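User: Fold this one for me? It's Tripeptidyl-peptidase 2.
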Amino acid sequence: MELCLSLYWSELRDVTLSLEVLFRCVHPSPSCLTFNSSNMWTSVDVTGFMREEEVFPEFKLTHRIVYKRPTSHKISPLGSRDVLPSGVQIYQLVLSYMFQLNQTTEVRPEFPLMSDLLYENPYSGQLWMVFNCNKQYKCAGDSYSRQYTTKLDKDDYILRLQVCHSKLSELKKLTDMPLCLHSKLSSSLSLEVTASRYDLMSGPTVTKKTLRPGISTRFYLRSLPEDKLAKCGIDQGHFLSGHFTFSKCDKVKKKVAYELKYIVGPQKSARSPSVSTEKKLYTNDSLKEFKINSMRYGVLTSDELEDEYGDDISFLLAKLRMLSESEMCSYSNAEALAASIYAKIDLNEILAQLRIQEQFSHVPGREW
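Assistant: Here's what I get for Tripeptidyl-peptidase 2.
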């Protein structure tokens, strides 16, 4: 390590200098942390090497990352001026991406496959442009997307990407290339830090800790509550990015920060309405069967169930069975009741059902 000192250009005289150099070193492992929220926790080991260090662990998420697939693509030849000296035709691929912003924020589009390539990129003419729903031009960019951060208002947007190449086969490989859209959160989200895994459940958080030289200390991180994610409009499949630091000084935080990524897992699912409807129908059928069977034991009479199940075939069949078993049975009453049951039966539906059973009667293990 070489440390150089010099006078400012306007200082043309001798000066007396008093200098104190302090070396400090804190190393986290891993230095690039990816936190899957489905695991509900993760940990980071921090080691101080030079001397005792007082660290202030801070884990902040500042941006949301959403991946979008193209809604359409088109490959076409360029004009007569876009021809190589050897006469080879150059083609363009135009990809269209749709995205929506629910609030005014800073946005940075990125294509991870080629955004960090320029002259070494096998594709040429990498250019993207953003338009709002009224087809008004908003911004554009090329390689090294980190320099193209733009503030956009709440609206629906379309991004068009143009990539050029002399071979159609190479362009066809990119027809489904995803867009990585970075948007700044209105307010950063901080992860809670604890000193032990036991404290992850309900224990206290840690804001500072003293490290001994050469000894590793482990910090544990809790996942974000779902209500915080819901307020920011973050859904399943989104990513959050930010950084983590261990210094109290803001100037040091800007210079020494480590990458942090947060994967949003599945959200708490609401009860399916179809399931509750199915349970309700099952309960109603069981109650009807119980009431109809109660007539045989004299608990309920057919007159009491007439208003509720008067047109139900199972009720009428049970009533006919009781009437035929009765010693006071009247032939005319039984005949009239049987005729009413016959009128309610759909023979075509029965034949169709029998035809289905006959088709599947050869299936092993199937009983009809």
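One thing worth pointing out: Residues 28-64+188-263 form a domain with the Immunoglobulin-like fold (CATH 2.60.40).
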